[in-house]
Amino acid sequence: MASLRHPSRSDGPLQLALPIHAPASPEFVFARVFRRLGFRRAVPDFHIEYRPFSSLRSNIALKGNRARVHISDVLAEAPTIVLEALAEILLMQLFRRRASEEARECYMAYVFDPAVRRRVDEARRTRGRVRLLPARGRHYDLGEIYSRLNSRFFGGELSSCRIGWSTRTSRTILGRYDPAHHTITISKALDSESIPLEIVEFLVFHEMLHIRIPLERRGSRRVVHSHAFHEAEKAFPNYRRVRERLKKIFSQ
Ligand SMILES: [Zn+2]
Questions:
Q1: Which of 1, 49, 143, 198 yields a CA-CA distance of 20 to 30 A from 8?
Q2: Measured in angstroms, how far is the CA atom of residue 21 from the centroid of ligand 1?
Q3: 225 C-alpha to ligand 1 centroid (Å)
Q4: pTM above the 0.90 mark?
Q5: What is the 223 CA–ligand 1 centroid distance (Å)?
Q6: Measured in angstroms, how far is the CA atom of residue 210 from the centroid of ligand 1?
Q7: What are the backbone angles phi and psi of residue 146, rounded to the nearest 5°?
């Protein structure tokens, strides 16, 4: 902080903050972006916290005039321009609008920086515990299914990975591959005699494809299920029928 007396005015000293060594506080950045975006409402009172999340997530919640923002602490060192981009993305999301291409590009460029990715993976490994139930369930043995599919569709070349049932019986998240932990989780909802074997196999196959086919980046978007992914998925016997059955079972 520097105090300067403006020579041409006599109405008291002018306080000027020099921005060079004092980066703007995140609250200040969010308020500035809020004004720039031209929302027709008063600037909320921002409360921003960096949290040790196990992933690169951030969120915002507005209650009255208080906006609570949680940002992954992996982003704590991010340059102001990235924080501005994130502020725009979160604020636009909050008001169900789409952030500008510039903001999304800027944020994604930072997030895809190899150094940042390494920090994210590190945070995942050390913080995110993937809780799993053993592969051998009540009806299906995921370990057995994995090695069977591995030799049948991947020439046995897929490295062995941790696989197990989820602790919660989710009917919306049926399967998940976590690259940081090299772990496949299948929802416990599928470990049931009412679920046909081919459905479980198909879900495991889908997650195995995530090991084989890396993420694609298209513009500012991460494409998890690329065209190549969908094409590879069709190698599963009776692909369409299985997908239909899957939809039927889980849309009830
Ligand atoms: Zn997937």
A1: 1
A2: 45
A3: 6
A4: no
A5: 10
A6: 7
A7: -60, -50
How far, rounded to the nearest angstrom, does the alpha carbon of residue 125 sit from its chain's CA centroid?
Answer: 15
Distance (Å) from CA 120 to ligand 1 centroid = 20
pLDDT given at position 5: 36
237 C-alpha to ligand 1 centroid (Å): 18
200 alpha carbon, distance to own chain's centre? 25
Tens digits of per-residue pLDDT, 191-243? 999 999 999 999 999 999 999 987 777 777 778 898 999 999 999 999 999 99
DSSP for 128-180, please give it: -----B-SB-SS-BHHHHHHHHHHHHSTT-SPP-EEEE-SS--SS--EEEETT
Q: Give the distance (Å) from ligand 1 centre to CA of residue 176.
A: 7
Q: Which two tokens stand for residue 3?
A: 């105090």
Tens-digit pLDDT profile for residues 22-48: 567 899 999 999 999 999 999 999 999
